[in-house]
Amino acid sequence: MTRFVIRRVLWLILVLLVVSFVTFALMHLVPGGPWSRDKQLAPAVVAALNAKYGLDKPFLVQYGNFLVGILHGDLGISYSYQDRSVTQILMQGFPKSAILGGTAFILAMIVGIAFGMAAALRQNTWIDYVCVMFSTIFASVPGFVLGILLIIVFSVGLHWFPTGGWGSPSQVIMPAVALAALPAAFIARITRASTLETMRQDYVRTARSKGLLERVVLIRHILRNALIPVVTVAGPEFAALVTGSVIVETIFSIPGVGRLFVEAVFARDYGLIMGTVLFYAFIISFANMVVDILYGVIDPRIRYD
Amino acid sequence: MAISENAANVSVRPHHTLWGDAWVRLRRNKLAMAGGIFIILLSLAAIFAPLITPYSFSHQDLTAILQNPSAKHWLGTDGLGRDVFARLLYGARTSLAVGIFTQIIVLGIGLPIGAIAGYAGGTVDNVLMRFVDFMYGFPDILLIILIKAILGGGIYQLFFAIGLVAWVDIARLVRGQMMSVKSRDFVAAARAMGGMGPYITERHLLPNSLGPIIVSVTFNVPRAIFTEAALSFIGIGVRPPTPSWGSMISDGYAVIFSSWYQVFFPALAIALLMIAFTFLGDGLRDALDPKMRH
Q1: Superfamily classification of domain B18-66+74-292
Q2: Quick check: A267 contacting B, CB < 8 Å?
Q3: Cα–Cα distances in Å, from A126 out to A131, B34, B169, B222?
């Protein structure tokens, strides 16, 4: 187990190294540089700026400097926000993305598991059909389209919620729902399938035949085992929600990391692009790693060699 | 007597093929058929758009901007006086083109890589799959945005930006399929009869992996369409005046309070197309699942 964890952590570091290198290379391929403005700067000014920020050095040297910076917890400087470092900018944006993604995640888990269980326990009744229908529809409508439709109904039509911004709980509800719908539908589908599967297992029949209360069978034998596949998708889903709100943040004007990235690409802000991609890649890879490790803890049948 | 009766039974037993069975099952699935018919109708409407609407997607009538739906303009006009219905129809061309061409790129990269990894196994498989793992380390949408920023331009560059990122799933799927089909008896038989690697891959492995690949493509097409809409919404997708549902939403968003239908119709169109593909994909998966074959 310890060996597995160590190997998994080393793999995580390697993935991040590759991601950072590829991003660094891609970023330098984007036409124009951080000093491309509508009004052209004098060549001498550009040269001086490049020298100041080390952009005149060879590519590999720049990459090396970046890596050294990371070891000191420094993701480099942003070229469009002159007053703050990339680390500071991300630390300001990330809590917003995290609150939004976290709320959406909790919402998706509760709704998804509840509907999935309800559908499975009442298989082939109208409850099941309604749950399956809704999960099929919401599994296909992207968050950004749902967000637009929510704004039309609840902001334009009913005036219940503001169209966007950040600061009050009422501004979190709509984007969180828009983000949560798809994973909720996905989790409901998985929960339903896995609960149906578990209900057919021999140990459930045994538990019932020993005369256990239905409630006990349900919670101790069915629920616990049925949720194993849900846990495996929970990690990646959480990472996807926290990092995947690029478009939804733009629609609802939430100054999170996703929107920072879009602005950074438009401004060719190398430092901020690099920092964002790496930060997101870290969250995604880390979540996958935790799931890989936790999988064995939850399900003792799985052994690491 | 009994023997001849059996023989008669055998001779009248209808001929079943996998694809025939799948088609019968698919036809019985009402939602899948509804999804398929919607996609076909939308494609026809997109192809024959000039016959359906007299308006062009780019003609601006500045005397009639931001009009409500009427007999003259079925879904109203946008902020530049362009007919929304016409733009929806021509925008469907963009969406469907993105759906189709990205999948060609995805299959063009993913099929060979997955097939080689799955068939060759060993070191080749290891190297290719580690590469796939690295691709999974990237946040998808960020990588697409970055590649699109490098390639610049309009719709063709968009095909590549999405295709270059989305092939990973197919490669993984094909590899898994290859590995599972490879160990079947009929492949061993083909090899015993002297079949060579490429021949076996082409005649036995790929056809037997086709079902899951078709299903996966059916789910990937709407993802590509949605990605185009999302990128066009934030302004790095197709270039104006190419009509796109995503840029229609983005244009209409500024006037959402005065004329909400500007964003409503394109958003609804995206949602309906996504749902249609999901219905069709679910139906295809059930229809092609050999375990359901009786």
Answers
A1: MetI-like (1.10.3720.10)
A2: no
A3: 8, 21, 35, 29
